[in-house]
Amino acid sequence: MDEIIDISRLGDLKNYSVTTVFGDNRGFFEETYSDRDFKEAGIDFNFIQDNQSLSSRAGVLRGLHFQRGKAAQTKLIRVVTGAVLDVIVDVRKGSPTYKQWEGYILSASNHRQLLVPRGFAHGFLTLTDNVNFCYKVDNYYDAEADGGFSFKTPELNIDWPIEFDKAITSEKDAAQPTFTEFEKNNPFVYGEI
Q: N or C: which end of the chain has fewer CB within 10 A?
């Protein structure tokens, strides 16, 4: 097993490459998840569901999303085809990195995975056509606990490499509140999530 773990300045966020890619003239084989290997690398979560989304065009912007309360989720994410700029924001009140964000390029070619802990909002921008985005979660989806805030929130100053009027978004994401509006009822508290 290859193991590269980049510890983020956001503390609990980690960018992983803990899989070995075996390539030859036919392509490659990769074991993308092994409970044993991940636990040896310090990733010890009970992932209970796998999710996948397809974004057919470059410029799709999804997020920024999270689930509240007992439905909060840790995610282990990767890209199977294409490439994305993946962005996470620390939304845990009292955290030394509260309201700070980081972005990572995840792609089919770099085989990187990103662990997004509970208490972080998450979103991504597709950089290529036909992006298959996969992620494991440690809690089931709960529509009542679903939440988010606008990807274009000015107070966070996220450096998305696209003009917002050219981004392809859902109606739901386009109507999300600003971070300031979200903050009024922010349920995430550092050390309690």
A: N
Catalytically annotated residues: 65, 135
* pLDDT per residue as tens digits for the range 2-50: 444 455 565 655 555 556 778 889 988 888 888 888 788 777 899 999 9
* Whole-number Å distance between alpha carbons of 73 and 90: 14
Burial 52-74, CB ≥16 within 10 A → b, else e: eeebeebbbbbbbbbbbeebbbb
Instruction: Give the residues across from 30 on adjacent strands.
Output: 21
Give yes or no for residue 115 having a pLDDT over 60: yes
Taking alpha carbons only, the member of 11, 8, 3, 16 closest to residue 135 is 16
The neighbour count for residue 39, using CB atoms within 10 Å, is: 11
